[in-house]
Design brief:
- This protein has helices at about 15-20, 45-55, 85-90, 105-140, 140-160, 170-175, 205-215, 225-230, 235-245, 250-265, 290-295, 295-300, 310-315, 320-325, and strands at about 1-5, 35-40, 55-60, 60-65, 90-100, 190-195, 220-225, 265-270, 275-285, 305-310, 330, 340-350.
- By secondary structure, it is α/β, with parallel strands linked by helices.
- The chain folds into three domains: about 1-45 and about 60-100 and about 185-265, Rossmann fold (3-Layer(aba) Sandwich), CATH 3.40.50.300; about 105-185, DNA polymerase, domain 1, CATH 1.10.150; about 285-350, Beta-grasp domain (Ubiquitin-like (UB roll)).
- A six-stranded mixed beta sheet has the order 2-4-1-5-6-7, sandwiched between helices.
Length: about 350
Amino acid sequence: MKLGIIGKPQSGKTTVFNAASGQQEAVGDFSKATHRAIIKVPDDRLDKLATIVDPKKITYAEIEFLDAPGFSGKGKESTELEISSDLRQMDALMLVLDAFSPDADPKADMQDIVDEMILADQVMIETNIERRNKRIKTTNDKTTIQEVELLKKCQTHLEEEKLLIDIDITNDERKSLRSYMFMTEKPLLIVVNLSEEKISNASEYDSLFADFISSNKREMTSLCGKIEMELITLDNDDRAMFMEELGIKSPAVDVVVQKSYNLLGLISYLTAGEPEVRAWTIRKGFTAQKSAGVIHSDIERGFIRAEVIKYDDYIELGSEKAVKAAGKFRLEGKEYIVCDGDVVNFRFNV
Ligand SMILES: Nc1nc2c(ncn2[C@@H]2O[C@H](COP(=O)(O)OP(=O)(O)O)[C@@H](O)[C@H]2O)c(=O)[nH]1
Ligand SMILES: [Mg+2]
């Protein structure tokens, strides 16, 4: 899964990127550099399982982060849209808002970025309608006519300053929109970037964005990017001490990653063997057979049964043997819907 970081210039995008990735890209500069990183999804369930299984290695789920410039932050006044095509490839967006400067106005900044996303989609639609109309003139192709109708529907929706996430269309129509990679069709995580002083009353921002995130596929969280960036450079002991001093329970970056995961409807199931304890990313609602395919298509094809232990049972009882003795070891068929945190072993035959 790919997450794109967007926001006004100087809102803390690269700071948050560094905090999440542990990279040390220059902050506070106006260069239009693009940064990429693969980030491990923190998951202490893997660490706990590892204490039981003692594996050779632990493999976390991964997310790709892209810190890409392109938004002017000028909202409707934007004249040149320079939104990088890389951003269009993202599965979800994280919008970083400046709430640390003395004259910060995160709500207004959010509106500006949303306006810019709407503008970008409008431009994309206009170009495509034009191109298709030309084709219709020569071919009178029926599918193309339908496509234009759908694009016009989107156009009207955007003119009302609404995001395409919320447009009321059929699933098939939504599928046919996918290839345009519209900016306003992506799930959006708002990240309010607080100053060091405001970190203790972060909740005051919750109400500010409550309305915006009440629709589906939108989430918010707040953090202090600057502190988070320092946290990630510390070793575990120092980090724990620093966090206690600041009254932070878990690094906010973990929350960011978790929330992006939820936004996309992603969950993980776990495998726990001696060679490796590992998290596997699936979509909510995947059957056991489909989930097996994430490991290898052979396991999906030759699926026989899934041996499933609930994570909590595994930890509480302390071993596979004890789980079996307690009658909590389950054999599930291919239609079983895998849950977040299921510890699974697939039986298969190829
Ligand atoms: N006080 C404070 N300053 C921050 C915070 N996050 C970023 N900054 C500062 O804001 C400036 C811009 O940050 P940067 O990450 O480069 O923003 P970008 O242009 O969006 O990538 C830098 O001088 C940062 O040190 C924060 O949480 N608190
Ligand atoms: Mg930057």
